[in-house]
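TA notes, week 10

Several of you asked for a full example with nothing omitted. So below is the full record: structure tokens for the whole chain, then the designed sequence directly under it. When grading your own attempts, check the secondary structure regions first.
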């Protein structure tokens, strides 16, 4: 069996920054450091940080007054910031700068009187945070059906923003429907570089493999999109957390296995999966080299 690794894969700059934030807080301030929600959507990352002294909570009322709390890479709504001020919490914001950019766009267009179409997935932490910036002006668009039915008071003042971790192809189709219905639509494709690169990279290997394994968490949007992208290319694709999830029957008659990993997946999990497959050869197919880095929050510089 040959394993074909797609690249880029794994941690993006926003995830590296978020994990660094928690580790630096633990280093400088000691345990406990409270973290609201999963810092990134990967149980292995969360478990590693918990082992170092991070305390993960769902909501701020679980954090004692005056304590330090880290906000996750997915961003939060203004309501959460307000609650943190009322509790006199010391906030270290690990929101990905590319998510912050979408928040700022929502604020800008809401102030200018636009209706905001946010293309994304209901209930995702990033979507909740972004819609919280302008709840009265924002309308969630999850699919083409909603894009075809949505109505606004002023069809000439509309803007479309996107969650950063969506399928490039699916989002393009939704955007085309919105542009057809609203000719003056301002479209802001906010899908991040890492999501775009990883989807292009997995596409690049699908014609060389019999099967694709996407390594990452079930609740990770970008991991689920990677699986869908691979599947749409006509190859069986599975989302796994690690080697323990691999089912033997998947590999019957398979000579080449493609492997990628989501933007919040540690590379050691890729190594573990490859080792478990015991391939005769491993090949890396890289479509672009990433060199993006983000500055740490002011409090940690």
């Amino acid at each position: 069996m040959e394993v074909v690794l797609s690249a880029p894969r794994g941690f993006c700059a926003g995830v590296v920054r978020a994990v660094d934030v928690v580790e630096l807080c633990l280093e400088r301030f000691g345990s406990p450091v409270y973290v609201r929600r999963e810092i990134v959507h990967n149980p292995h990352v969360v478990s590693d940080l918990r082992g170092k002294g991070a305390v993960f909570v769902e909501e701020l009322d679980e954090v004692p007054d005056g304590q330090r709390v880290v906000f996750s890479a997915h961003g939060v709504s203004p309501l959460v910031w307000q609650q943190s001020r009322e509790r006199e919490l010391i906030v270290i914001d690990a929101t990905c700068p590319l998510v912050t950019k979408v928040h700022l766009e929502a604020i800008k267009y809401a102030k200018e009187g636009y209706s905001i179409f946010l293309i994304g997935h209901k209930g995702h932490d990033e979507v909740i945070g972004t819609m919280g910036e302008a709840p009265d002006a924002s309308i969630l668009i999850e699919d083409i059906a909603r894009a075809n039915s949505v109505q606004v008071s002023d069809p000439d003042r509309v803007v479309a923003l996107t969650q950063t971790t969506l399928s490039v192809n699916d989002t393009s189709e939704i955007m085309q429907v919105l542009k057809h219905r609203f000719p003056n639509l301002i479209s802001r494709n906010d899908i991040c570089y890492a999501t775009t690169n990883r989807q292009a990279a997995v596409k690049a290997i699908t014609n060389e493999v019999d099967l694709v394994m996407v390594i990452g968490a079930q609740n990770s949007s970008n991991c689920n999109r990677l699986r869908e992208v691979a599947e749409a290319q006509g190859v069986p694709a599975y989302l796994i957390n690690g080697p323990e999830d691999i089912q033997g029957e998947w590999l019957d008659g398979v000579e080449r296995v493609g492997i990628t990993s989501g933007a919040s997946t540690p590379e050691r999990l890729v190594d573990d999966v490859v080792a478990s497959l015991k391939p005769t050869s491993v090949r890396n197919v890289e479509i672009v080299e990433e060199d993006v880095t983000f500055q740490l929050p002011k409090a940690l510089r």
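The domain at 98-191 is CATH 3.40.1010.20 (Cobalt-precorrin-4 Transmethylase; domain 1). Use that as a sanity check on your answer.
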